[in-house]
Amino acid sequence: MADLRGGFTSTRFVLVEPSHPGNVGAAARALKTMGFSRLVLVSPRVPHVQSDPEAIAMASGADDVLASAHVVPTLADALTGVHWSIALTARLREYGPPQWTPRAAAAVAHERAVHGEIALVFGNERTGLSNEDVERCSALAHIPANPAYSSLNLAQAVQVLAYELRTEYLSADDVATRALVAIQANQEQGEPAGARAASDEIESMFTHLESALVAIEFLDPANPKKLMSRLRRLFARSGLEREEVNIVRGIARHILLKTNRKDGDAS
């Protein structure tokens, strides 16, 4: 049961710029029916959507999840402290992180939730997620709906992913539980070996790496093409650990020193 509780409490659902209060309330209801409670809203169109009558009506008993929703201005803020995230998209993309079905994504999410905070990211009802938002996430999920009519309401999409996650968390076996116990034992002795890098650490790494690539003229800012997108996809497949992020930043720092460029993001 430790693994089950950890999965539910370490999983946050992020709605990016939701337009309709009713969808926010319905999403809160979808989460509560599946045992989740952590809802994050990125710049919702209605500023105080948690108290909007339509949202409360559509929450239909999940008022507590709605009222406790955390509102932030950017996706970067929503992912603070998250070490793995998955973006839901209605269309397949040429570039970006690895792409999975909701069931496959839930299986990976289950493993990642053992290590710390994870997030599921959903876009605006009309435009979905921007390419920049997708690239900020670790992986991508696509619901294989009827191609002749694939339109899913935002709350319905949340329900699908929440259901798959609940099913995966409930099916936790003894091996996963033993792994969690071992990780917790390591944490009591200090930071565990192979600790996953948080989203903000990875973003700082990319900023640092980009500066280094510009310094050696490998990346032309005026004509970047898809270089950084491809690098993001490459690193997303590896599931970066904190030590690995530090190694990449160390390389970038030495490149900048050798080229006498300012180390723009050494935080």
TrEMBL record:
* Enzymatic class: transferase
| Coiled coil regions, renumbered to chain | none
Q: Can you say where in the cell this protein is located?
A: Cytoplasm
| Annotated ranges, domain tRNA/rRNA methyltransferase SpoU type | 12-163
Record keyword Cytoplasm present: yes
GO annotations under biological process? tRNA nucleoside ribose methylation
Recorded GO cellular component terms are:
cytosol
Tell me how this protein assembles.
Homodimer.
This chain's function reads: Catalyzes the formation of 2'O-methylated cytidine (Cm32) or 2'O-methylated uridine (Um32) at position 32 in tRNA.
Q: Which family does it belong to?
A: Belongs to the class IV-like SAM-binding methyltransferase superfamily. RNA methyltransferase TrmH family.
Q: What protein name is recorded for this chain?
A: tRNA (cytidine/uridine-2'-O-)-methyltransferase TrmJ
Name the encoding gene, please: trmJ
